[in-house]
Amino acid sequence: MNLFESTLIIWAGAVAAGFVGALTGLGGGFIVVPLLTLLLGVDIRYAIGASLVSVIATSSGAAAAFVREGFSNIRIGMLLEIATTTGAIIAASLAPFVPTSIIGIIFGLVLLQSAYLSSRKQADHPYAGPPDKWAERLRLNGSYPTAEGPRSYQIANIFGGFVLMWFAGILSGLLGIGSGAVKVLAMDQVMHVPFKVSTATSNFMIGVTAAASAGIYLSRGYIEPALAMPVMLGVLVGSMAGAKILFKIRTKLLRKIFAVIILLLGLQLIYKGIMGGI
Amino acid sequence: MRDLGGQWSDRNVERVVGTLLRTGVLLAAAVVIVGAIMFLFEHGTDRFDFHEFHGIRPEICTLGGIVHQAFTLHSRGIIQLGLLLLIATPVARVLFSVFAFALENDRVYVAITIVVLTILLFSLTHIS
């Protein structure tokens, strides 16, 4: 295979990664990494570098549309980014001392459980209790576009969501994958954020978390232009197309797609943990 | 919630943040496409071989090196420059949000955003 052919193959895979990654708020890394390592036999470090590029491209490519249309809640995103970024820094200093393969297996099991829970829920579960004091004070309540016009929502359990996001940051620092899943689950299951707003806001956030670790990957020589180039160009096309679909797709279907992907992510983590690949 | 009387609303902020992100990714993509065309002309028939990790050439691992390689029209340098623009986009978004929340007179979020920006810049420059 020459570089012209590999560019075409990687580009096509990256379009799919960007499309699904943008819709689900998970980023495109879970497709890009196996495509490069398993199908093309690329060293994992080059794959991680390309995956980082794919996450930033998915995030910025789709967020441009999500933010303008009002899907992403930028206040929730900003507030929770404090948790994810400090979590990531703590993880960087913890990494040498913790058994990452065991954490990978445990987290994999948590994802399997979440996939089951997520697939059972049919639609959103709006918060109907008394207005949350902190949600009002921090102006986190909002509205998002639907076919029947803007629908407003209230959120709750800010503190619980914040703590979970902190764990998401630590996990992404330790394991390198899966933080998007925790972000979506924390907003959807704990804070009562509508599912589409959860995925769009997670998508909005993952670019910042990934950008924080870009410098280190670049200086270590993980970002190979021949691989990152088709990944970036493909993911941008895919994520912009995915962003167009979010308005139309039914929440039920989106939730099912999300459940299938975190199921696969969970299995991937358990497999890697058992094989000692983390 | 009390309206704090700022000239700016959340809708304005969303519109400008959206435009900023779009401009950033399109600019980055344009640069990468130029580099990609040159790269495929020069190396399109080279063998695909990334089975072993050798790192990439040190001259395209640093900011100064990438800029130099790009402006001396080396295709890999131009691609890396485009990727740097892509990486800079979310950072620029956070930086802009500080000003946007300030225009909205929203002090709490100016503070929150400055904290995020500080952590981001710290981890970009310190963790290695």
Pick out its properties:
heterodimer, A: 278 residues, mainly alpha, two-stranded antiparallel sheet, 2 strands, 74% helix, 2% strand, B: 128 residues, 4 helices, disordered N terminus
Please give the structural blueprint.
The complex is a heterodimer of chains A (278) and B (128).
Chain A: H1 3-24, H2 29-39, H3 44-69, H4 74-94, H5 100-120, H6 133-137, E1 142-144, E2 151-153, H7 158-175, H8 179-190, H9 195-212, H10 214-219, H11 225-246, H12 251-275
Helix pairs in contact in A: 1-2, 1-3, 1-9, 1-11, 2-3, 3-9, 3-11, 4-7, 4-9, 5-12, 7-8, 8-9
Chain B: H1 10-43, H2 63-71, H3 75-103, H4 107-126
Describe it:
The complex is a heterodimer of chains A (278) and B (128). Chain A has 278 residues and is an all-alpha fold. Chain A has one domain. Chain A contains twelve helices and two strands; from the N terminus they run ααααααββαααααα. Chain A has helices at 3-24, 29-39, 44-69, 74-94, 100-120, 133-137, 158-175, 179-190, 195-212, 214-219, 225-246, 251-275, and strands at 142-144, 151-153. In chain A, helix 1 (3-24) packs antiparallel against helix 2 (29-39) and helix 8 packs antiparallel against helix 9 (195-212). The mean pLDDT of chain A is 86. Chain B is 72% helix and 0% strand. Chain B has helices spanning 10-43, 63-71, 75-103, 107-126. In chain B, helix 1 (10-43) packs antiparallel against helix 3. Mean pLDDT of chain B is 86; it is low at 1-6. Chains A and B meet through helix 1, helix 3, helix 4, helix 9 and helix 10 of A and helix 1, helix 3 and helix 4 of B.
* DSSP helical segment count of chain B: 4
Order of strands across the main sheet of chain A: 1-2
Total beta strands of chain A: 2
- Calculate Rg of chain A over CA atoms: 18 Å
Question: How many separate domains make up the residues of chain A?
Answer: 1
Kindly state the percentage of residues in helix of chain B. Answer: over 70%
Shape of chain B: elongated
Q: Give the integer mean of the pLDDT values of chain A.
A: 86
Main sheet attributes: strand count, strand direction, barrel closure of chain B: none
Helical amount of chain A: over 70%
Sequence stretches where pLDDT stays below 50 over 5 or more residues of chain B: 1-6
